[in-house]
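Run folding on both entries below.
>entry_1
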Amino acid sequence: NQVAREQALVRSAQALERDNAGLRTQLVALNHQVGDLNSQLARKSSQAAGAQDALKAEKNRTGLTSVSGPGVAVQLADGNDPKVQGDTRRDWAVKYIDIQDVVNLLWSAGAEAVSVNHQRVVPRSSFYVAGSDLLLNGVHLTAPYEVDGIGDGSRFNSTLSSTDNLPDLKSRNELYQLKLTWQTQRTLKLPAYDGALVARYALAGR
């Protein structure tokens, strides 16, 4: 029956999320082992040490290392459900596109690094709908959300405060008390991206 099928799907989804978390833990451990081996190699060869420095710089640029510094923490949470019959828009709830808009706004304001609920946003990251929640880097995230950005806190504050930015989100904040707040921070620590890196296309260097 329908209830049994839905329960089976829920159990399957939960099992997949547990498998995903386990594989990510294994990946982090393997990356540490690779790092240790590379460090040993760098101590034995100046050429290898130079290559390691170049690799570290590339990892920093692509979000593969943790980073800390001043910035801003943006909080988003669902508002009050007016319980309108037949409502499919759910404007009282935080949507994936709201998160995406905030992230893009922080990038435009000069963010050096961004994360959502402690999931690092990197060039290959994509935001997907997962029911009423968010799927980022293959990880299921639920409200409330915190979007952290490292950079110039005063510039972030000015950008977020501007009436020209996030007009839809701010309007829904007033209508449904949907939470949209932010606070500059002296120190934020963002984790490294811990997902798989799959390159489907490449261009020869020049």
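>entry_2
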Amino acid sequence: MTEKVLLIDDEKDFLEIMSERMKTREIDVTTADSALEALKKVEEESYDAIILDLQMPEMDGLEALKILKSKKPELQIILLTGHATVEKGVEAMKLGAMDLMEKPADLKILTEKIRKAHVKKMILVEKQTEEKIRHI
């Protein structure tokens, strides 16, 4: 099964290069160049994993992470940053991020994390469905 990913970064060149590299690995990639655009896309589509840049104008990755997780707790979010700090990493994990990776991301490792996110999301959605059925 092909993993469906939303890649969010304000650097358009990075988006283009990473999405092409992911597509060659048979990952279905949608891109957004801002957190606000990404929030709209998440309302319209379902994704197995979200790859989110930590530092962006308008809204940073941690703020976007809070909003995304509050709207859809089952989302599996991997933060990417060129400016990693232990504090930001700890805060991201507390807010529900699945992982934090430094740029430039090793695509092999990122692909493995995307596949794990896909499995984790499927399990969470299955549990949510079982809960709904029990309540009916």
